[in-house]
Amino acid sequence: MLSDAELMARAKRGDTEAYGIIVDRYKSWLRRIFYHLFWDWEEAEDAAQEVLLRVWLARERYEPRAKFSTYLFRIARNHWLGQRARTNRRPQIVSLQEQFGPRAMAMLRQMADEAPSPEDTVIRGYELFRIRRAIDELPEKHRLVFILCHFEGLRYAEIAEMLGIPEGTVKSRMSHAVGKLRRKLAHPEEGIRDEM
Predict the structure, then answer these.
(1) Rounded to a whole number, what is the distance in angstroms from the first to the last CA of the chain?
(2) Residues in CB range of 149: below 8 A, 6 or more apart
């Protein structure tokens, strides 16, 4: 099996099959990361495709100085920051579908099919909303570490390499992220007052 660096060397020469293997290896991974950043599968799919297109267009400049996944993650992070900046500039109208996402809405529909009380459905949906909002409110440096560790299951050493920071910093950021989430989620009544 060819390494990522070998595949990218072939892609530099215009080998689309080699690049197709790179896409197959990393598209799902990118989609999952973007989902946990945007909470929307369609937006995650679009973002993953955009990043992979950027990698193809910049293939001739690629130098294997670090793991390919680190290189790819940096492009993905820059794309996310750009999207976030553009989104923050325009007003948002958010539907329940957009707020909870298709997977959560399906979960809510399934819960309705299982005949829980309307109160249980609302409470479960609200808890999901609170968790997502709490993650979204983490500072960028804590949020990225939390997502990579918690949702992607990466080890601290892998995250450190991807972000270009010491492993101790990853541990510290993870600790801060978990602490902030615990504090934020410990008082559900505050969230209800905030929403009113």
Answers:
(1) 56
(2) 156, 159, 170, 174
Distances (CA, A) of 172 to 45, 64, 69, 185, 190: 31, 29, 23, 20, 27
Best CA proximity match to 162, nearest among 30, 42, 2: 30
Tally of structural domains, the chain? 1
Residues in the chain: 196
Question: Which is it for the CA torsion 174, 180, 186, 191, positive or negative?
Answer: negative
**CB 42 within 8 Å of CB 31:** no
Q: What is the pLDDT of residues 149-194, one digit of tens each?
A: 888 888 999 999 888 899 999 999 999 999 998 888 887 555 444 4
Query: Residue 50: inside a domain, yes or no?
Result: yes
Question: Angle between the 96-113 and 118-136 helix axes, to the nearest 10 degrees?
Answer: 140
User: Rounded to whole angstroms, how far apart are CA atoms 182 and 130?
Assistant: 12
Residue 97 lies in a domain: no
pTM: 0.65
